[in-house]
Structures are given as C-alpha cells and as structure tokens.
Design a protein that fits this description.
179 residues, mainly alpha, two-stranded antiparallel sheet, 4 strands, 6% strand
Length: 179
Amino acid sequence: MSENTPPLSPSEDAPEQNIEPNRVSQEPMGPPRVVKRKNQTRGQLSGVQVMFAAILAIGMVLGISLSSRVASSQSLREFYDGVETEIAQFRVEQARLIDERNFAQSEAFVEQWARGEGKMVRPGEILVVPEVAGGESPVVADNSQPNPFSFADVETTLPEPEPWELWWSLFFDGAPPSF
C-alpha cells in the first residue's frame, strides 16, 4: 500500500481507528451503513425550530395588538363622527345667530320693533290699538296728541325669604309650609 492512499478499512492498518460521524463505513463484511452522531437525541429542539417558535410568538403578539387597536379605533371613529355632527349643528346655529345679530343691528329691525312692540307711528300715520274688553270701540291715537297710555310700576325682583324659610329648605330639602 502506498503512503498517499488511506487505509480501506479500519482492520488493515489500525484496529482501533475512530470512525467519523455521519460517514459511511466501508467494512468488508457487510453493506455500507450510516453511523449516527451520539450527541444528538430525539427530544431536543434545533435552533431553526426555536427561531420559528419565537417568530410565531412575536407574530401572534403583534396580531393581537393590531386587533385590539382596530377595535378601539372603531369606537373612536364613532365618537369622532358624533362630534363632527355636533360641530356641523353648532355651525348652522352660529350662522343663524349671526344673521339674527346682523338683522338686529339694521334699520329694518328698529323700524319693525318700533311699529310692532313700541307702538310708534310715522308722521301722518294713525295708530289703532284694539281693546279686548267688552264691546268698546278701538282707541285711535293721532300723532299730534300725547300718548294716552299710562305706565305702571312693575316689581321685577323676588321678595327676600325669611331666615327660617332658608333654614327649613336647607334641612328638609323642600319648600317651607305656608301658614
């Protein structure tokens, strides 16, 4: 045998030569066989399996987080739509109030008030005020005559309650009895 060629079997040169793992041994007595590694057992997880499990766990956490965010965004969307509707209603009311304010500042409003509630007339016009009581005829006022209406004092403030009435309402949460 030459020095460059390796021995064909372990029994030729060295009877106790180690066989490399996962190599096919060529023994003269039988068919070739695969020798398994001794450090690998069936119950252990490989690195690829651990990475796959980690990626799967992270994916599940992200999926659950996304689902909860979508659910919370739906309630926020409903709240947002409600607020937008309310804002639109307030803008319509604001436009109506601005128009009313502009009309109240105009000469047309002053004339309308003066003729309706103020009971005023222009020179040359006659004021007719119908009376509801009995069968009397309406009062006709002329511009040249003084105003026939007399004004009476009207009390606009509420009377002050007695001190015992205040204490009664504080203790009994109701109006005091009237004697």
